[in-house]
Design a protein that fits this description.
The protein has 216 residues and is an alpha/beta fold. It is built from six helices and 14 strands. The protein has helices at residues 24-27, 39-54, 71-74, 77-87, 183-186, 205-209; strands spanning 7-9, 14-17, 58-62, 91-95, 110-111, 113-116, 119-122, 133-135, 140-146, 149-158, 162-164, 175-176, 191-195, 200-202.
């Protein structure tokens, strides 16, 4: 697990990233909400950094790489080139999410899911699925107390069979672990791994015991 929100799989020489939501900022313009149009640029910088750091042979995009079906068309040419250059020498596997289903550019072959070394990779976890699974979609986050302050940080969620990744995009927000969407994780042995600036911080057992649905 990397503080950027990426996951590296050493035995597969593979990098996993999720929920980049390219061109989310520009999508807000349709509703009259004007945000600085730099989110794609900043997310690409993160992506280029982790690729350079891990030097993977393969990269998995676990869905919602693009914020909507027209995101690729809105993306400036310079950023299109950066993305293509970043994955040029990699085997890139694109899994569709709920935001970019049917909207992944034709030049990228997209999949609903894929199984790698016995582990299923998909965008949204299937609660009824019994095998090991890595997914995304929920943008998990949690509030921790540090130095007398409450700090909200994205996190990885790990249980016996399921692993949920945080969002990699810089403009994606997060869903608190106390939300009922994570209810099944409240009932089993679960670990949270919070993203720090340079390190990953594992949650304490006390933190998890104090978490209840509907409470922060």
């Amino acid at each position: 697990m990397h503080p950027s929100g990426a996951l590296y799989w050493p035995s597969q020489f593979s990098l996993l990233v999720a929920d980049l939501h390219f061109e989310k900022g520009s999508s807000y313009h349709k509703t009259g909400q004007f945000l600085p149009p730099y989110d794609t640029h900043q997310t690409l910088e993160k992506l280029e950094t982790v690729i350079k750091y891990f030097k993977p042979r393969r990269i998995f995009f676990l869905g919602d790489t693009f914020h909507d079906m027209s995101a690729w068309k809105r993306m400036p040419d310079v950023n299109k080139s950066r993305l293509l250059n970043a994955v040029e020498n990699l085997e890139a596997i694109w899994i569709e999410g709920n935001h970019d289903q049917g909207g992944v550019p034709d030049r990228f072959k997209s999949l609903e899911k894929i199984e790698v070394d016995g582990i299923t990779l998909r965008h949204i976890m299937q609660r009824s699925f019994l095998g090991p699974e890595i997914s995304a979609h929920f943008h998990p986050a949690g509030v921790i107390k540090f130095g007398g302050m409450r700090v909200r940080r994205p996190c990885f969620i790990k249980s016996d069979q399921k692993f949920v990744m945080p969002s990699f995009g810089v403009l994606t927000g997060g869903l608190d672990f106390s939300n009922e969407a994570f209810e099944e994780f409240h009932k089993c042995e679960t670990q949270l791994f919070f993203l720090g600036r340079r390190k990953i911080f594992r949650s304490s057992e006390r933190y998890l015991k104090n978490k209840k649905v509907g409470r922060g």
